[in-house]
Task: structure prediction
Amino acid sequence: MSENRAIARAAGLVAVFTLVSRVAGLVRDATVGYFFGTGLAADAFFVAFRIPNLLRRFVAEGAMSTAFIPIFTEYWATRSRHEAVHAARVLATMLTLVVGAIVLLGILLAEPLTALFAPGFASDPEKFALTVRLTRWTFPYIALVSLVALCSGVLNSLRHFAAPAMSPIFLNLAMILGAAASPWVSPPVQALAYGVLIGGLVQIGLQVVSLGRVGIVLVPAWEPRHEAVSRSARLLLPTVFGAAVYQINLLVDTILASALPPGSVSYLWYADRVFEFPLGLFAVALGTAALPSFSAQAARHEWDAMRSSLRFAIRFTSLIVAPATAGLALLAFPIVAVLFQRGAFSVEETRQTAYALTAFALGLWPVAVLRVVVPAFYALQDTRTPVWTAAAAFVANVGFSLSLMGPIEQGESRILHVLSFLTSSLQVADFRHAGLALSTSLAATLNLTLLVLVLRRKLGPLGITELLPSFVRDLLATGAMIPVVWWLQSHVVWTASEPLWWRASWLVVCVAGGVLIYGAAHVLLGGQEVGRVWELARERYRRLLPLRP
Result:
């Protein structure tokens, strides 16, 4: 089986479990929105959870896996099974000690961390104190999810993708139960922190069981001078920043949003959760599935094959993400209304969240392609390039944000004084929290552009011109879809008090109509990608069916 087909099949498996996870995540966020809306408690929890959630993205979807998989794959391919497993045990031991120290420091320094990441909360002592408390409760999740990431890296290296892909489902379920139990907890939002910890414990239990099934037990092995430790450290430290610039930009958005009117942090959080649905479903699945193939091709110096696999992954990503970008922008308000508008989540909160989602949607394509391009650098064991491009994008994001968010009040902290001066001096527009989301999209576009230019120098001509006909078909098919989706969504007043089932059903009609028009237009324009996706889906469906007599 070719590597391209292996990538597609593995991505399909990951996407199935990711779909379930993302649906559970949307249910989780809808439940949180019902109980807490965008009020004081919600803002406090979202800031408190942003740090461990940020690290989860670093390690679970980027840093740990991309730093560890190339090395473990090389050990597995060129050395004995015993040496490869021993390397994993040594790394697990070192990781446990390091993240344990990070957790301890995070708990002790929760108050200054809150002052740093939410300077706008200083004017509200109740919100500030609650954020500090929740930060201390959620910080241990960093240790749990870091070990989950290492175990997932081992499993992905061995082409076992199911357990790592389904792992986030249990975090979402635990947080749903926490939100549902919140009326019986004091303060109620504390129940969400309990859910985070329980979910982390279940996640690591799932990975340990899965490793046991393939005969690997990660018992402690203290050997700090092991070759795998030094090599992983050299890859991991810059990867933490390089692989997750998008998430770092979101953290900057949280810091700046804390200085905007109350609810701004929550608007961005809910919008990002919706945005992550198509991103996680397709781009993360492809990146996860492609990295072992990229690593194997790089180890064998098969540069033509690697370029071919990269083009395939980009083309496949664009096929899905181009219409998803238009769909998110067109249906931002209906999506937010159906998912969140109930209980403590009002129409105005729906409107403000939809503004942010529209701005995020503009960056869906570059962010998605980044999830495919960055692993190519890690397969080449080049971590420097993603670092400096990420640094450039980070600086650009800060500049864009200060220019687009509008002026803010000085407040009580020194950080707010500085931000007030900068936003007044650099103001280009006054988009408030939506300006922060738009800045993240612009920074991702810059990051992708720089990475592609450098990758072309490393691998030679990437054959981007071969992708142009496919890109043009994607754009034309998306253009054919837009008026149909717009016409369908205009037949419902989404703020009205119609039954939820009716609004949800009509939203499904809008999405299905857009998908059908896009697919038909793509085929009429001569594209073969839709047919290949359909064949892979049918193959996956047949494998899931029980054997017939």
Summary: Residues 543-549 have pLDDT under 50 and may be disordered. The chain has 22 helices and no strands. The longest helix spans residues 264-299. Residues 466-541 form one domain.
